[in-house]
Design brief:
six-stranded antiparallel beta sheet, globular, alpha+beta, seven-stranded mixed beta sheet, 16 strands, single chain
């Protein structure tokens, strides 16, 4: 629980001001201001209970702030615990603030969340027992003797959301405003012509859309619209009606539930790949990789599917399974139908498992870059490409080539 730390006269007699490295860094939350705070030589800072170290000040939300760090604990701390507080040291208007402190060690990350109203200086909020001093020293929280952690600050006020996404979603399947219509006719096998006609009629579904929206989201669906005059239905026979509905709903800004992913896992990948809805394909792939069980019996089927659909994340998961179960796979699995180019992915998986910590080549920079990219996880490659606004779909080779070209 966060704790108020004002009016502690005894502590004010044992304060040490230190020059602190403070940098503004990018946050994944657009409403949050995120700062990196570094205290050098942590083990040399005063470690007696009740002795406080005060950081340099930094500016945020029109106010000045600083960090109170008690390496040996606050007067209310348990023995051996470190205390940390966010202090507002300027301004006279009350501020409702959400704040986070994030500490990263070798094997884990510790995050503390707080919500408080800062009424004006002196006013500080935080935790008298953030975590043990011994863990900071022994568990990899120090880098070259320095303790670095991230502090996030954002207003805890009611701010109405931009309505654009909800307006877009209201246009989904809106017949009155649509200028294109898709007729989804799922083909079903039958022994007679009359049965085939009845089956086709029973699965016909109409979905209304807007050419302008499709033009900016799916080149494939937009191209289909170009083949139709006015509201003449565009016939689609290779996707289940409910899958196409979800796909179109996603295009208009909707989200797919876990329940729907569970029912249509590969259907979403197939349809999104065919109709160029890349983000849905990758989201469905992530869901499949994290929920479907890869076994000795299905490992080759999953590998062939991943290769055919350019599902790099799924292929990586299959390769990891093969390496982790190499003896059983060697004895029980046939690779007769596996394409030859898959061998490179397998070698990369082996290298990542057994040579991940080997020192890099001291040669040319291009060689270093290539080795770095070749051992990166698919999620990391996609993340880097997404940060640069580049295409995030494709095989491992395609992702690396795209990243190298723009590095």
């Amino acid at each position: 629980m966060d704790d108020n730390n004002n009016n502690d006269a005894a502590l004010q007699e044992h304060e040490t001001f230190v020059e602190t490295k403070i940098e503004r860094i990018k946050s994944e939350n657009p409403k949050e201001r995120l700062f990196s705070i570094t205290f050098d030589n942590f083990e040399e800072l005063p470690s007696t209970k009740g002795q406080r170290v005060i950081s340099s000040t930094f500016s945020c939300l029109g106010n000045q702030w600083r960090i109170f760090l008690d390496p040996g604990g606050h007067s209310e701390s348990l023995t051996g615990m470190v205390a940390v507080y966010l202090d507002r040291c300027s301004g006279d208007r009350e501020l409702a603030i959400k704040y986070t402190f994030t500490f990263s060690g070798d094997d884990e990350r510790m995050i503390r969340l707080g919500e408080s109203i800062f009424y004006g200086p002196p006013d500080s909020w935080g935790w008298p027992n953030v975590f043990p001093r011994s863990e900071i020293i022994d568990d990899g929280y120090l880098v070259n003797g320095a303790l670095t952690f991230h502090v996030g600050i954002q207003l805890d006020e009611f701010i109405p959301k931009n309505p654009a996404s909800s307006i877009m979603l209201k246009l989904f399947n809106d017949e009155n405003s649509a200028d294109a219509v898709f007729e989804i006719c799922e083909q079903q096998k039958s022994d007679s012509e009359s049965d085939r006609k009845r089956a086709k009629t029973s699965t016909e579904k109409l979905y209304y859309a807007h050419r302008l929206i499709l033009q900016h989201y799916s080149a494939e669906l937009s191209a289909l619209c170009a083949t139709s005059d006015g509201m003449t239905p565009i016939i689609i026979t290779d996707v289940k009606p409910e899958v196409f509905r979800h796909l179109l709903y996603y295009v208009y800004g909707g989200e797919i539930s876990d329940e729907d992913f569970a029912v249509h896992e590969k259907d979403f990948i197939n349809a999104a790949d065919k109709y160029g809805v890349t983000n849905l394909k990758l989201e469905a792939e992530v869901w499949y990789v994290n929920n479907a069980e890869i076994t000795i019996d299905n490992v080759i089927d999953n590998l062939l599917y991943a290769d055919a659909m350019n599902c790099a994340l799924l292929k990586e998961a299959v390769m990891d399974f093969i390496v982790e179960n190499k003896q059983e796979v060697t004895q029980r699995v046939s690779f007769q139908d596996v394409p030859g180019d898959v061998c490179k992915d397998l070698l990369i998986a082996v290298s990542r498992h057994y040579d991940e910590d080997s020192p890099g080549d001291d040669g040319e920079e291009e060689i270093d870059i290539e080795k770095t990219f070749s051992k990166m996880r698919i999620r990391d490659l996609r993340h880097k490409l997404d940060e640069k606004g580049l295409d995030i779909d494709g095989s491992r080779e395609a992702l690396i080539a795209n990243l190298k070209e723009h590095s």
